[in-house]
Amino acid sequence: MKEFVVTCIRQHADRSANEYYCLQANPNSFTIKNIGNEKNLELLDIIDGKRKMTNEEIEGIAEQLSRNIVKETDANLLGNVKNAKEMNKKITSCCELLVKKLLLSAPIIVRFHNDADGSSGAYALFLAIRKLLAENGSDLQNITWKMHRSIAYSNSDSFEDRFTVNSYVTSTKPLLVLLDFGTSEESNGINDALEEFDILWVDHHPILEGFPLSRLPNYVNPWMYEGNSDLTAGFLAGELAKKIADVDIDNIQMASLIGDHSEYSNTNNSEALEIADLLDMVTSDSRQLVTYGNGYVKPHDINRMLTDKNLKSELVAFSKTHMDTMINEGLQNLKKYNIQGTHLYVVDFEKLREKHGETKYPLPGRYSSKLLDVISENTGEKCVLVLHFLSFISVRISKGLESEIDALSKAMELKKTYSDTIDACGGHRNAFSIKLRSSDDKKSMLRIFLRELGCSIK
């Protein structure tokens, strides 16, 4: 296709300021350019041509080109999933969808969970997309990157995203990419989003009852293929990235595994360990890195951090010193209980953090995971850690104990019984949180939960 075709228009109040995204496609390459409105163009116009292209024609061209671009790859870790071949096929088809949307300049919104797992996945995709476009002489992309401070996609999130793409006229639906979001009922914005977007969702949380899986053909999760949460969302997003372009992201993928305490993680990989700690820090308290806008970290901020040696060194030093201090203070403030042949520890995180001013690093979830590791290393036993703060109760369980204790199931049952008190509950079997409707109920609900786990507490 030698001609350029208008595949997307970004409208402005002043029509003369409209932006026209145009595609020229060859069998294995493409060019995307943005032109002004001097020719009074409309969607699917062929530049300097005498006719429009149909939706079916341009979709067919983009689909074929995306298949030609996307590479067949095999990941060693996918072999830990029983139905690895089927999972790899799904990753490939999702990758083809993403590339097709890029080719057609459809607006793309990427929401990623604010931890090492979600942010590493976003960064891997950022690197791959940037390289693919650069190799084809293009740098235009209608991509909005949004760091997300929960694993639920709410009605307000859906409203915000639909508003974001409202000014675009496109030949194909916009694309919403969700990285490391859970499947709980709190993701109540999905149904509205499906009316406006195609959704590509990369996840590794257990799939809960009521999740609208049948409406999400581009949903990737190892639990669907007889795998588990140890194959992280960030690692899987990295597999998508490798199919898009030849990018060196092995350490980024390992940082995802380390950040989520996967059994496949290699903490002897010092570079990946450093990246995981940095991603945890800047997604906890982005003021360490970002001073503009809403302060949320975006992939280009991560790129600056990882490529600027002086900045990286400065942030690494702060991260290590501050975390070590917090861990030592946590060890000194533990309450210890007997539970099912092991021990359960409780710590008041709110009390610990108030000593350190305004910094939000570390967030309670990732702090509790690191504190549990240190407790287990010091005691030589598998154990349970319950951390409480504001209206939240965060639970971490040593690998191998989660089936025996089954704390997540007990927490979910409590949510049914105390629905007027517990607002939400979700996560993984060995790492989850309970959100209360009011912090006033935390003390009483904490006692009820601890008794459910077998603690002798009045």
List keywords for this structure.
five-stranded parallel β-sheet, 3 domains, 15 helices, inorganic pyrophosphatase (n-terminal core), six-stranded mixed β-sheet, 458 residues, Diaminopimelate Epimerase, Chain A, domain 1, alpha/beta
Describe the structure.
- It is a single chain.
- With 458 residues, the chain is α/β, with parallel strands linked by helices.
- The chain has 3 domains: 5-65, no CATH class; 72-307, inorganic pyrophosphatase (n-terminal core) (Alpha-Beta Complex); 328-452, Roll (Diaminopimelate Epimerase, Chain A, domain 1), CATH 3.10.310.40.
- 41% of the residues lie in helices and 18% in strands.
- A 6-stranded mixed beta sheet has the order 10-11-12-13-15-14, with helices on both faces.
- The radius of gyration is 24 Å and the shape is elongated.
